[in-house]
Amino acid sequence: MTGAAGGIGRELRERIKPWAETVRLADICDLGPARAGEEIFQCDLADREAVMKMVEGCDAILHFGGISVEDKFLPIMNANILGLHHLYEAVHRFGVKRVVYASSSHTVASTPPPSWSTPTCRCGRTVFMA
Ligand SMILES: NC(=O)c1ccc[n+]([C@@H]2O[C@H](COP(=O)([O-])OP(=O)(O)OC[C@H]3O[C@@H](n4cnc5c(N)ncnc54)[C@H](O)[C@@H]3O)[C@@H](O)[C@H]2O)c1
């Protein structure tokens, strides 16, 4: 699970344990020590080789890592575009069968119909592209 230190990741950390023998928790931020049934993997999604190591051996991925609010373009691009590109490359290389990807209301937020498909912020535009 990427983004394991984030809001959704923290909520899911205990709940997903019954789903797997071992849960690999990844984030750019510190996740603290591994608990029973966990592996901790601290890495930047923009680091291709690190993402390859993070994904190798996984059966399924819950992808919540990235910039979820508005920010400057460079960190958003590194996490949300480059990071996702690395993740999908690794998924392809290692034959991971399932990826759950969280979209965002920012892809359409604050945009009334008929322009629902027009993201209103950099964060939303990158998630929309993904
Ligand atoms: N919270 C919601 O209600 C909600 C609803 C719909 C979709 N989403 C989407 O789900 C995802 C997770 O949401 P959240 O609320 O947990 O977000 P969050 O911002 O709390 O967590 C994102 C996590 O990603 C990590 N991260 C950021 N850049 C990184 C990088 N370069 N490399 C590795 N990790 C990095 C952060 O450290 C953070 O822990 C987001 O993409 C968000 O848009 C959230």
SSE topology sketch:
Elements: H1 7-15, E1 23-27, E2 38-42, H2 48-55, E3 60-63, H3 73-94, E4 98-101, H4 122-129
Helix pairs in contact: 2-3, 3-4
The structure holds nicotinamide-adenine-dinucleotide.
Residues 3, 5-9, 27-29, 44-46, 64-68, 78-79, 83, 102, 104 line the site of nicotinamide-adenine-dinucleotide.
List keywords for this structure.
alpha/beta; Rossmann fold; 4 helices; 4 strands; two-stranded parallel ribbon; globular; 130 residues
Describe, in plain words, how this protein is organized in 3D.
With 130 residues, the protein is α/β, with parallel strands linked by helices. The chain has a single domain, classed as NAD(P)-binding Rossmann-like Domain (Rossmann fold), CATH 3.40.50. The chain contains four helices and four strands, in the order H-E-E-H-E-H-E-H. The strands form two sheets. Strands 1-2 form a two-stranded parallel sheet. The longest helix is centred in the middle third of the chain and has 22 residues. The two termini are 18 Å apart. It binds nicotinamide-adenine-dinucleotide.
